[in-house]
Amino acid sequence: MRNTGDQEEVCILEAIRTANMHRDELIESLVDNSVLIIAAATARRTLTVREISTLTMIPLATCYKIVDKMSTLGLLAETGKVRTSTRGKASIYTSSMRDFSVDLSKGSIDMNITWKNGQIMNINREVCMSVPQGEVPIGSDATLGMMSK
Fold it and tell me: Could you tell me which residues come within 8 angstroms of residue 4 by beta carbon, excluding any fewer than 6 positions away?
């Protein structure tokens, strides 16, 4: 049975709470091409894993694994169950994100996620240590004018 709009909002809110507990893992997950494809496929509608697999051409077993991971991280919300012609009932999922952006311009990863309920999450991860201009860290392969092959 498909949930009403209010029930779907509750499921999305619970997914967002879950995502807040897994903030560090979101950065790694959201740069995964398959995760992005599934998030886009479920952005405006609810789908079963089989429907997601068919729509995205991701193999069914792989799709189950990715959907489970996304659901565990709060990127997908399980919004109900539907009857299927082959296996009885199947869970339906929708993306809990409305949109997100990534900014890499300052030597860090700045990710802004807007959830479907309007909340905004900002995640920042420093990836480069500060090095004074013109200095190369000891042990670095990044010597001026030379690139390692």
Answer: none
Kindly report, residue by residue over 98-112, the tens digit of the pLDDT.
Answer: 998 988 887 788 889
pTM summary value: 0.75
- Alpha-carbon distances, residue 25 vs 30, 50, 70, 105 (angstroms): 9, 25, 10, 21
Domains of the chain plus CATH, in order, are 5-96 (1.10.10.10)
Q: Which two tokens stand for residue 77?
A: 């919300």
For residue 65, give both structure tokens.
């694994």
Q: How far apart are CA 89 and CA 12, in angstroms?
A: 21
Give the H/E segment covering residue 20: helix 5-21
Q: How far does the chain reach from its first CA to its final CA, in angstroms?
A: 57
Which DSSP string do the residues of 65-117 spell out, in sequence order? HHHHHHHHHTSEEEEEEEEETTTEEEEEEEESEEEEEEE-TTSEEEEEEEETT
